[in-house]
């Protein structure tokens, strides 16, 4: 209102520091006042009621010590004020002075008071020698507070700065002109055309707020993908691009048979222990699998076969039928490989050979089609382990798993394949280390060089499935299957720089963090 009225009177405001803000007695010279004015200017500018230009100035403002002087007088004035006038009282000793005005003021003020000719010595004590004084420091500070500067000039200002009584501040002031929508009325401009305005005709005289095409939209409150889902999508795309088909993995509950026995994991294996595997209490047991296949598997365990001597330990039907939460997605792979071998077992026609082989042709060198079709399969899903939970382990996590079945595959195929697979994830340097899995021989652990951590970290486990697993399923002898598995959590944590799994999964996950996490690309 003040700005509009001033403009109405004068057409231009040359210097906003000359305005007198209502309620204040002096012009708005301080930088705080100018900030208040700037707020009003911007609001009027958005309605095109005014235009303004900005000017920069260096201004001065009292420090906290300066403000103290404004209130109580300078150190020298305070020293002067507590002394008796020469000849009319007992002189004050330096120690007494300290108790009267404080150490700091006594120290700084004495010298200046002497220099100004305000005080003198009488014996060992101090007395006033000027009956009246002008506290120039306080007056200068008053002027600075009011105007932001000093008429006396830069030399005095520099001295006050050196004494740490004032600081320099960058300030602004403005010149103001009328804008195209100038009016002295500050009625809020219309932001919308309403039916009422049209019927009453008030739209003709109303002022309108200018449309701001630069304004940013309100962020949408849509859903967001969890980092694990984003990384899962990356893996899925790598597999699909390499011609893999996705395995169904919806059965979290498996039997001991499919999770372990079918894979030739011995029934006494420690992984089956209650400490490592969650068993179901209700129902406790599964329906029996195909009896012929079941017999072949149990015989291979107990007595061997297919060139193996087996484990030579008694077979337990009870162990095999126990229901459990799957400990690895290799249980699903076992189901799928068994299904892939259905045509080899003569259970389905050769042409109907499993739907996931992408219509692959027989690859046998002989004329005889034994029903085998090569296949590349993958899965990414949840598995459960009875682990001690810590910063990097939970009782459930996701496994990324792939299997490739073809005639005459070798270890070199597995290694070569791994290199391509990890390269697509952006991991160029991989190393392999011999390892042990009950169901693969040979087995290899995969290590990748982590450029940030500058060390080799284990990224997966792999191997060639054993004949003791494949041949009871019905695969011809020359069919080799290699497979590998890795966790989804570890690469996700590395990608997002997370070092505690609980930041990624569980009740401590920050929703905001999930919403703002970027998509990652391997
Ligand atoms: N099942 C293995 C694991 O849990 C991974 C793996 C899959 C290893 C296939 C070899 C072959 O780590």
- Return the average pLDDT rounded to an integer: 90
Bound small molecules, which ones? Answer: phenylalanine
Residues in β-strands, percent: 15-25%
**Oligomer status:** single chain
**So what's the overall shape?**
elongated
Major β-sheet annotation: 7 strands, mixed
Q: Which class best fits the helix and strand makeup?
A: alpha+beta
Question: Would you identify the regions where 5 or more consecutive residues have pLDDT less than 50?
Answer: none
Number of helices: 18
Distance between the termini: 60 Å
**How many strand units?**
14
Strand line-up in the sheet with most strands: 6-9-10-14-13-12-11
Helix content: 25-40%
**Radius of gyration computed on alpha carbons:** 43 Å
Cofactor: Mg(2+)
GO molecular function, one term: tRNA binding
Main location: cytoplasm
Organism: Panaeolus cyanescens
């Amino acid at each position: 209102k003040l700005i509009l009225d001033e403009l109405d009177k004068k057409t231009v405001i040359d210097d906003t520091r000359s305005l007198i803000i209502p309620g204040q007695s002096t012009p708005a010279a301080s930088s705080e006042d100018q900030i208040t004015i700037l707020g009003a200017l911007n609001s009027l500018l958005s309605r095109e009621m005014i235009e303004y230009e900005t000017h920069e100035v260096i201004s001065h403002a009292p420090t906290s010590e300066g403000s103290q002087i404004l209130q109580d007088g300078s150190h020298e004035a305070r020293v002067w004020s507590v002394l008796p006038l020469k000849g009319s009282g007992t002189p004050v000793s330096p120690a007494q002075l300290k108790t009267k005005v404080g150490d700091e003021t006594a120290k700084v003020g004495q010298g200046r008071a002497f220099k100004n000719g305000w005080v003198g010595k009488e014996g060992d004590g101090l007395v006033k020698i000027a009956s009246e004084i002008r506290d120039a420091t306080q007056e200068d500070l008053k002027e600075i507070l009011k105007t932001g500067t000093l008429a006396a000039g830069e030399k005095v200002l520099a001295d006050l700065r050196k004494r740490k009584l004032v600081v320099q501040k960058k300030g602004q002031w403005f010149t103001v002109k009328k804008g195209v929508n100038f009016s002295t009325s500050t009625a809020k401009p219309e932001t919308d055309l309403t039916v009422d305005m049209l019927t009453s005709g008030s739209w003709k005289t109303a002022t309108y707020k200018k449309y701001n095409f630069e304004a940013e939209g309100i962020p949408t409150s849509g859903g967001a993908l969890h980092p694990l889902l984003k990384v899962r999508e990356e893996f899925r795309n790598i597999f699909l691009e390499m011609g893999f088909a996705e395995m169904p993995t919806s059965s979290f509950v498996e039997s001991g048979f499919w999770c372990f026995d079918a894979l030739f994991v011995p029934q006494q294996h420690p992984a089956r222990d209650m400490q490592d595997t969650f068993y179901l209490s209700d129902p406790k047991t599964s329906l029996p699998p195909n009896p012929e296949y079941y017999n072949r598997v149990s015989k291979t365990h107990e007595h061997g076969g297919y060139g193996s001597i087996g484990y030579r330990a008694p077979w337990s039907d009870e162990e095999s039928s126990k229901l459990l939460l799957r400990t690895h997605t290799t249980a699903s792979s076992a189901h799928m490989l068994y299904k892939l071998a259905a045509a080899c077992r003569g259970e389905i026609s050769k042409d109907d050979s499993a739907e996931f082989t992408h219509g692959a042709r027989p690859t046998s060198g002989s004329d005889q089609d034994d029903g085998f079709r090569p296949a590349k399969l993958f899965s990414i899903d949840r598995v459960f382990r009875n682990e001690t939970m810590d910063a990097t382990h939970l009782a459930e996590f996701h496994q990324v798993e792939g299997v490739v079945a073809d005639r005459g595959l070798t270890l070199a195929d597995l290694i070569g394949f791994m290199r391509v697979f990890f390269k697509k994830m952006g991991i160029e340097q991989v190393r392999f280390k011999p390892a042990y899995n009950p169901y693969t021989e040979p087995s290899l652990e995969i290590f990748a060089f982590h450029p940030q951590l500058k060390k080799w970290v284990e990224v997966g486990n792999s191997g060639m499935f054993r004949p003791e697993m494949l041949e009871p399923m019905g695969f011809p002898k020359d069919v080799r299957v290699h497979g590998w598995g890795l966790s989804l959590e570890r690469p996700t944590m590395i990608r997002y720089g997370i070092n505690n799994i609980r930041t990624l999964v569980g009740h401590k996950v920050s929703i905001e963090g999930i919403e703002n996490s970027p998509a990652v690309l391997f």
